[in-house]
Amino acid sequence: MEVVLVRHGETEWSRTGRHTGRTDVPLTEEGERQAGAVGEALRGREFALVLSSPLTRALSTAQLAGFEPDVRDDLAEWDYGEYDGVTTPEIREKVPDWTIWRYGAAGGESVDDLAARADRALGELLGIEGDVLVFSHGHFLRVLTARWLGLGAAEGRLFALDSGTLSTLGFEREQRVIRSWNVPVPG
Prior knowledge:
The protein has helices spanning 12-15, 29-42, 56-64, 88-92, 100-103, 111-125, 138-148; strands at residues 3-7, 49-52, 70-71, 132-136, 165-172, 175-184. The chain has a 6-stranded mixed β-sheet with strand order 3-2-4-1-5-6. A hairpin with a 2-residue loop joins β5 (165-172) and β6 (175-184). The radius of gyration is 16 Å and the shape is globular. 33% of the residues lie in helices and 18% in strands. It has 7 helices and 6 strands; from the N terminus they run βααβαβαααβαββ. By secondary structure, it is an alpha/beta fold.
């Protein structure tokens, strides 16, 4: 069993470094191109289950890649609360040592909140026989990966993840591992 992760294609906010949580920002032209390239890279691959976040940027990436996923609210991006649409340097004007991993988001979710959602998602994924394809978001997929590996959710900070990339979680014997990570898709 493998779990293929797709971070949604580029949005204007992801391109400019603005934290994009629950604001439903559409894909840019480049993001649409990335989604099409993901579809080409996955063409012919069979999945027992295809899932997506309900947010437009993830759902559009799935559809432009040629998939009609089942939607799961737990796959939505971190709720950044007051920090939605704000850049890290802007936040650090008020909280100089701020990171999402340490402080979470004012008026939004903590890293523990995100861990609970990731754990619920993993519970479903591990119950599937066959490969699974997941379209979601940068921070959420990083936490999901940390939890897949049995790490604390904040260890997701160690897994940089670019827009429109493919990553694969799997097993080496019974051990959960990363098979590939943050792979750009040519196109």
